[in-house]
Amino acid sequence: MGKMDFGIIGLGVMGRSLAKNIAGKGFSLSVYNRMTEAEKEVVPNFLKNIHNKTVQGYTEMEGFVLSLSQPRKILLMVNAGSPVDAVIAQLKPLLAQGDIIIDGGNSHYKDTQRRATFLKEVGLHFIGCGISGGEQGALSGPSMMAGGAMAAYAHIEPVLKGIAAKDNQENPCVNLLGSDGCGHFVKTIHNGIEYAEMQLLAECYALLAPTYSYEKIASIFEDWNTGPLASYLLEITAQIMTKKEGDSYLLDKVLDQAGSKGTGSWSSQAAFQLGVPASMINAAVTARYISALKEQRVKWSGKTVVPVEADAIDIDLLKDAYTFARILNHYQGFEIIKAASKENQWNVNFSEIARIWTKGCIIQSQFMESLVTRFRDTDDLLNDTALFSELQKNEKAARSIIKHSLNLRIPIPCISNSLQSWMSLTTERSSAHLIQAQRDEFGAHTYKRIDKPFDQTFTSNWTHNG
Ligand code: 6PG
After folding, report:
1. Which end of the chain, N or C, is surrounded by fewer C-beta atoms within 10 Å?
2. Shortest CA distance to 267 belongs to which of 334, 358, 204?
3. Secondary structure class of 238 (helix, strand, coil)
4. Atom of ligand 1 nearest to the CA of 194
């Protein structure tokens, strides 16, 4: 057999599924998985199940590398962090000038930039490629966000386009979005938006649960899913509601401690570092951390007996509040990308990012489809007059849902935060002049005056009038 088109290192769930997808699209493929006691059956099992003559399996790196046609195109599907560095260190001496390593994991974009820089020095290309869609997406068509050099991307584009999900116009949901680190950064913010979208649904559920059964909540979510609120996350949430184990609902058995692998907090860290208000993602990340404090929550809940009202939730108001919060979540998420794009000179195209996120990924939704067009006219969603009017229209609903949550003592940090952030963004004179005065009072940090040109700064002695 001749040399193979493409290589994959790491046959975990995602690596296996992508390998099947690639082989199924007619590309010849070599796969490698390390030979440890626990993983010794991984490669033979994979080959047994794939029934494809154009797939070769390896447990030693040299044979794997030699089996590939040049420039070699090798996708790493290993855990983010030090395992990526370890595999690169193993690969590097075996590769030739112009070969391309693609990292398909959820790597931190700064790691990707570092790796790209040192590999460039030895003539190797490195593409950081965010891959979304979980196991099913990887198998049947993921959404992919690549970052790196066009010269290298051009070599891998046919494979990526071949396996990607297709948008409504049948275009593949993949592209090179910018230079080094851009793909992984955009994937990180995808996950940040995902965190807040999941939290919003959890909050809607929490508000509905005191009044309605799982079956009824599922039917409410199914109903929402027939209109502009339709999304993959809403669809699976409706399904989850009615999943039974014997006579009981499985959801009742799940421990209420949410895990997280890092990309949500990386989104918040990036937003803080860039000075962008991403308060809804922050609220969603924080909500997961608070959920993890199960022992404390159990202990303190018994000591906080506060009378609550028992009114039923207004489903239409909740729907409008959810609509409101989702718009602001997407607005905030894209604002982080905008700031990072400016700082890193990625020059990203927001409409194209939204298009890539219309299919295959976790945050695919009808709203995302509308963003493809909206972002053709503006890169600031609050400049979109229709969206702005929708926020204005739904503000009242958000306020009454938040009041309801307070009356019933149901924490809804993400919905609450959407209203806080909207009110702050639409308040002409904020209270920040007091912050400036405080800063100047205790530290002479200076302030600007509204009655003087803004290029001038002032400091005052705040303890004496004069
Ligand atoms: C995707 C997902 C995926 C992510 C999980 C888990 O786009 O397919 O974002 O990449 O790993 O959602 O993330 P947490 O464990 O942090 O919730």
Report:
1. C
2. 334
3. helix
4. 9
CA distances from 47 to 20, 34, 72, 136, 265 (A): 10, 15, 21, 19, 38
Contact between 394 and 318 (Cβ < 8 Å):
no
DSSP 462: T
| pLDDT above 80 (res 349) | yes
Tell me if residue 458 falls in helix, strand or coil.
strand
CA distance 228 to 327: 12
DSSP character at residue 166: B
Output the pLDDT for position 99. 98
Q: Give ∠ CA 195-112-74 in degrees, rounded to 5.
A: 105
Identity at 224, one-letter amino acid code: W
The DSSP code sequence of 441-454 is HHH---B--TTS-T
For ligand 1, whether the C-beta of 142 sits within 6 Å is no
Confidence of residue 305 (pLDDT cuts 50, 70, 90): confident
Q: What is the DSSP letter of 231?
A: B
Is residue 186 a contact partner of residue 339, using CB atoms and an 8 Å limit?
no
- Pocket probe mutation, ligand 1, options 362, 363, 368, max atoms within 8 Å of Cβ: 362
| Sign of the alpha-carbon dihedral angle for 210, 211, 216, 218 | negative
Kindly list the catalytic residues.
Answer: 187, 194
Please tell me whether residue 438 adopts helix, strand or coil conformation: helix
Residues contacting residue 308 through CB under 8 Å, at least 6 positions apart = 407, 408, 409
Residue 69, classed as helix, strand or coil, is coil
pLDDT of residue 306: 73
Match 């609902």 to its residue by tokens. Answer: 249
Cα–Cα separations (whole angstroms), residue 441 to 178, 423, 436, 444, 463: 44, 28, 8, 6, 8
Q: Is 361 in the pocket of ligand 1 (CB under 6 A)?
A: yes
55-69 pLDDT per residue, tens: 999 999 999 999 999
What average pLDDT does the chain have?
A: 96
> 126 pairs with which residues across the strands?
101
- Any ligand 1 atom below 6 A from CB of 162: no
Per-residue confidence (pLDDT) for residue 276, from 0 to 100 = 98
Q: Could you write out the DSSP letters of every residue in 345-364?
A: T----HHHHHHHTSSSSTT-
Fill in the DSSP letter of residue 93: G
The confidence band for 304, taking pLDDT boundaries of 50, 70 and 90, is: confident
Distance 145 CA to ligand 1 centre (A): 14
Mean pLDDT of 202-223: 97
Q: Decide if 418 contacts 280 (C-beta within 8 A).
A: yes
